[in-house]
Amino acid sequence: MDQAIWLMEGLSSQRDVISGINEFFKNSNKTITVIASHRHNRNEILSLANIALIEPDEDEARLDFITDTVKHYGVKALVTGRNGMWFEAHRQEIEALGVSLTTGAISTAMFMLADDKVEFALTMKAQGLPVVPSLRIESAGVLRHQIDQNAHKKDDEKLLCVKPVTGIYGSGFWRFDNNASPMSSFTHPESRKVHPKIYLHALEQLEDFEPLVLMPYLPGPEYSIDMLVEKGDVIAAVARRKEGALQYLEQSGPAYELGKKCAQIMQADGLVNVQTRNDDQGAPLLLEINMRPSGGIGYTRHSGVNLPALFALRQLGLMDTAQAKLLATTSFSPAVVRSMTDVIRYNPILDNLSVREESA
């Protein structure tokens, strides 16, 4: 069997990562075996792999599942997008199988730091990186006090936004707007604007308060920097500047450099993503790092830089560091992309999938 790379369940980009790997090796004289697994029968993901597996739901069964799969298929590289903390806690047992493990980080401490947006901001600021000022809010009363204090500032300093201290996909993000109608957050939730009185009223009804982070709302634009990093060494990176429905693919500039510095400090390891947003002076400030591929990593392939393929080449020892860094720069060309709605036909043949194999 060819060298095997195993991509276990991810959060939103597993299909795009596999697709990027397949695209490169389809036109290459090198051949590999791609294994994909998921807890659910996600045929739109699993059908792209040479070997498809269903993962166990229980943490207790995961290590045995990994052990059996690695031994049976001769897996050389194992990649995970979910359960990073669990994998880091079991790194020694997994790597003892003779397989490399990529989780996005190299320790549980870095996962915890990336997950806590306030602590992350404080740590990056201490390292000299420009960050969005972030204040931890521990109660509705504290938030009400901060909003009242902010009301005395100049108009251009009154803009505030709030989101949970932990979380992904921008879940729970709201921008306070004193001009928003009481119903606007219900009739136009996609605007993410809410009157602070409405938000506070809802918050005060909660019995269990989850910490929030209060930040100024910045004018932007927002940047999303997708990277391939190996223990803090940035091998390849592409920045996406988001302006409305369009995203501009870049490989230079302050936001691009800030993203790389953040990944270096965090000792990121794998396909990761850093987000920044420009302040009113046009300078990027650090928002957060995701120790996993972003949902938009597939967009970066339109720049000519195939981050998933470079990752697979490095993990399987088919390309050295210098070659990968050179390819990541020489293959790049600026591009503008627009997200489109699409669907994938469901294949009932993959229902009740346990194991499916095809020739590579």
Description:
The chain has helices at residues 14-26, 43-46, 59-73, 84-89, 91-95, 108-115, 117-126, 140-150, 184-187, 196-203, 254-265, 307-315, 321-330; strands spanning 4-7, 33-38, 51-54, 75-79, 100-102, 135-137, 160-164, 174-176, 193-194, 212-216, 222-230, 233-243, 246-250, 270-278, 284-290, 335-338, 355-357. It is α/β, with parallel strands linked by helices and 360 residues long. It folds into 3 domains: 4-102 and 343-357, Rossmann fold, CATH 3.40.50.20; 111-115 and 219-338, 2-Layer Sandwich (D-amino Acid Aminotransferase, Chain A, domain 1), CATH 3.30.470.20; 133-216, no CATH class. The strands form 3 sheets. A 6-stranded mixed β-sheet has the order 5-4-1-2-3-17, with helices on both faces. A 6-stranded antiparallel β-sheet has the order 15-14-11-12-13-16, sandwiched between helices. Helix 1 links the parallel strand 1 and strand 2. Helix 1 (14-26) crosses helix 12 (307-315).
